[in-house]
Amino acid sequence: MIPIQTLRENPDYVIERLKVKNFEAKEIVQSILSHDEERRKTQKMLDEKLATSNQMAREIGILFKQGRSDEAQELKMRTAQLKEETRELSEKLASEEKNLEELIVRLPNLPAEIVKPGKSSAENEVVLQEGTLPSLESTALPHWELAQKFNLISFELGAKVTGAGFPFYVGKGAKLQRALISFFLDEAIAAGFLEFEPPLLVNEDSAFATGQLPDKEGQMYHVAIDNLYLIPTAEVPVTNLYRNMVLKHNELPIKLCAYSACFRREAGSYGKDVRGLNRLHQFDKVEIVEIAHPDQSFRVLDEMTSHVASLLRKLELPFRMVRLCGGDMSFTSAITYDFEVYSAAQQKWLEVSSVSNFTDYQANRLKLRFKDEEGKTRLVHTLNGSALALPRIVAALLENNQTPEGIRMPKALVPYTGFDLIS
RNA sequence: GGAGAGGUGGCAGAGUGGUCGAAUGCGGCGGUCUCGAAAACCGUUGACCCGGGCAACUGGGUCCGGGGGUUCGAAUCCCCCCCUCUCCGCCA
């Protein structure tokens, strides 16, 4: 949620910036401002009435204590009218607050200054590209065929036992999963992130606080009997650790990381893009989360992207880093960098990480604040990024490293896998 | 799943109808003392909303797990829900 303060102070700026996300905010913003004004007027009236009632109640108490019950009774009569009025006003106030909130949540986060307008991923800017694209033999196989050939992953058994998008990893395939998870976690810990192993289900409050609800409801698996949601990313439980808190400025930044399985219903996806590991209902990911001082969040963002880049370098994968244009960014993000690795056999770039600064947007909903150097309470900035999501990394590792002898493992991974070749 | 106990400020914990946003202790912050620190002592210390002020600050309102009710008045009484703890049962 954009803080109401921002909307009051700079409505025109908000409208202008949201155009970068192709969002026409003018009507909503105007509506918000008038509802806001109405709300304040109502509250003022209500507060005055309440002040009078409080005063009268106090007087009645004193009169009773002094044994002047006739006078007290008389005063009691006079509170009836007031009570009815405050009742009406507080109902009005509650409904106006609800209306206001419903409008505000419809506004996406403001894109940062550096973010350019654009409609789709075609307009994203490549800001960094590293590594040489491998040129494979014409006999090169896509990862789903390699997975079958070397018996690493079984999509068929997953489909039999659960459904499409829930693969089994087998033998060295399973070991590779564990190796990557450990490698990513160790790297994150070395970079100063504190490891958490989170619950894989969260309650409704948590899903709201990080913004999965109400609008992305259909993307999450829901356990109806207990009203719990399977997490789509570790960001949800880990960020919610800090819901409703006031931190001290010297506690910032807070750096957290977590491995988790992630569950996504991904309704409506189909075709070649979802073949093999390209898109799954359940996958593994190591997530990094940072809670930062507002003045520092863009520096922190750079640190996070450097961390992700270093992982890809160690895995010896050709990658590029892309700054998303306004139209391709998520609702809650102020700026997002995607990392993509090149899949040689599919001859396309696969997104393996998304690193975002949510500025104060998520913090506002989380009610996550800090006391600054002057003792003022302010919203923090939150950031997160995948470091990294496994499936497409595995796809790229298998495809790019296929040789006549088998699939060779990058050096950094061998201590974790215990093998350097899959044959 | 069964039985019981309980949810109060950063933490611990008192408060069972009126002057209670709430005793007390701890912690935090500021000071005295000290070369410095500890100890001791003194002072101070919640969040949110609306208004006034450039600001320090200040007036009003709300908040004692959440929601509803009784009452002139609720942390305190009643109802519903949620959560935690203890014992029993079941269980990796």
**Regions with pLDDT < 50 over 5+ consecutive residues?**
none
**CATH architecture descriptor text of the largest domain:** 2-Layer Sandwich
Strand elements, count: 19
- The total number of structural domains is 2
At the fourth level of CATH, the homologous superfamily of the largest domain is: Bira Bifunctional Protein, Domain 2
Strand content: 15-25%
Helix content: 40-55%
Briefly note the CATH topology name of the largest domain.
Answer: BirA Bifunctional Protein, domain 2
Structural class: alpha+beta
Radius of gyration (Å): 27 Å
| Lateral strand order in the biggest sheet | 1-11-12-13-16-10-9-4
Using the coordinates above, name the CATH class of the largest domain.
Alpha Beta
Amino-to-carboxy terminus distance? 51 Å
Shape: elongated
Overall pLDDT metric: 90
Number of helices: 13
The main β sheet shows up as: 8 strands, mixed
Give me a quick take on this structure.
Helix content is 41%, strand content 22%. The chain has 423 residues and is of the alpha+beta class.
Please provide a written account of the structure.
The protein is 41% helix and 22% strand. The longest helix is centred in the N-terminal third of the chain and has 40 residues, at 26-65. Strands 1-11-12-13-16-10-9-4 form an eight-stranded mixed sheet. It is elongated, with a radius of gyration of 27 Å. It has 423 residues and is α+β, with helices and mostly antiparallel strands. It binds one RNA strand of 92 nucleotides through helix 3 and helix 4.
